[in-house]
Amino acid sequence: MTRASLDKDPRDVAAMFDDVAGKYDLTNDVLSLGQDRLWRRAVLKAVAAQPGETVLDIAAGTGTSSEPFADAGVHVVPADFSLGMLRVGNQRRPDLGFTAADAMRLPFADDSFDAVTMSFGLRNVASVETALAEFLRVTRPGGRLVVCEFSHPTNGAFRKVYTEYLMRSLPPIARKVSSNPESYVYLAESIQAWPAQRELAEAVRRVGWDGVEWRNLSGGIVALHRAVKPTA
């Protein structure tokens, strides 16, 4: 398979994730130097789901991001458009209700979830605002949105070092641990092309979410955006 372009054709992106599903979690752990575990804990805390609530975890992949919710007694629906990822996840956690879903056309009724969360997946959809509007549609009034995504380091010197790592170090490391290293070239390019924190916050606000805010993790390598669906 050739590297997915930044046009984000859904078939190309889904095929790319199908290819890397088997070693996806291991590769992410290595490439992030273990920081991905800290980011997942930050998402769990930001969603603040209580037992009995229902959470949609879109772009859940193999379910690594969904497991903490389930283990805390929260009803979580792990959803992804990569069937390869869903198969691996179902083998690991057959107790979770893995669901095939496109972020831009969610197969759920209006006002279905107390919270919607997406980690490291919004960058891969063809229309960010279409996806954000779908998240709004399926969230109950007063419900929460939490998006965890790669972003822009706030320190200029660190940003330069980080960019060098992405483009020079990440692909060689991926060749050693990933089943499809070319997909991590796409990863590096898509991170660089992604808008900064404030721009994403504005996109979230434009589709109708309230109380939009963000905080940086790991110096801005990742940003956690939060918002609430209006009750009126």
Describe this structure in words.
This protein has 232 residues and is of the alpha/beta class. Mean pLDDT is 83; it is low at 1-6. A seven-stranded mixed β-sheet has the order 3-2-1-4-5-7-6, with helices on both faces. Helix 7 (156-177) runs antiparallel to helix 8. It has helices at 10-20, 24-31, 35-47, 67-71, 83-92, 128-138, 156-177, 182-193, 197-206; strands spanning 54-58, 75-80, 99-100, 113-119, 139-150, 210-217, 222-228. The longest helix has 22 residues, at 156-177.
Structural class: alpha/beta
Low-confidence stretches: 1-6
For the terminal residues, how far apart are their CA atoms? 47 Å
Average pLDDT, rounded to a whole number, is 83
What oligomeric state best describes the polypeptide chains here? single chain
Outline, from the CA principal axes?
A: globular
Count of strand segments? 7
- Give, in order, the helices and strands: HHHEHEHEEHEHHHEE
Question: Largest beta sheet: what is the strand line-up?
Answer: 3-2-1-4-5-7-6
Question: In percent, how much strand structure appears in the residues?
Answer: 15-25%
* Radius of gyration over all CA atoms, rounded: 17 Å
Number of helices: 9
Largest sheet: 7 strands, mixed
* Fraction of residues in H or I helices: 40-55%
